């Protein structure tokens, strides 16, 4: 049982590291950093599934204070 738990934790860590590396390698210095995403690519997906139509509204209001419009 302990080895199954260790294997699961290792797989999760490897997947997380892969996504972080993918974001790091594909990020252009001229682009702004990602606004949301504790887990790259998966956090927005979870937000869309759970929040459905409210996801984009919450994202817009959370970003509104971070980005100057003028």
Task: Explain the overall architecture.
- The relative contact order is 0.09.
- The protein has one domain.
- It is an all-alpha fold.
- It has helices spanning 2-26, 42-51, 54-64.
- The chain crosses the membrane at residues 6-25.
- Keywords: Membrane, Transmembrane, Transmembrane helix.
Sequence-ordered SSE layout with sheet pairings:
Elements: H1 2-26, H2 42-51, H3 54-64
- How many domains make up the coordinates? 1
Question: Beta fraction of the residues?
Answer: under 5%
How many strands in all? 0
Terminal Cα span: 57 Å
H-E string: HHH
Helix content: 55-70%
Q: How would a crystallographer describe the biggest sheet?
A: none
> Which outline best applies?
flat
Question: So how many helices?
Answer: 3
Q: What structural category do the secondary elements indicate?
A: mainly alpha
Mean pLDDT across residues? 75
Over all CA atoms, what is the radius of gyration?
A: 16 Å
Unreliable spans are: none
Keywords: Membrane, Transmembrane, Transmembrane helix
Transmembrane segments: 6-25
List the main descriptive attributes of the protein structure presented here:
transmembrane; transmembrane helix; mainly alpha; membrane; 70 residues; 66% helix
Summarize the model shown.
Helix content is 66%, strand content 0%.
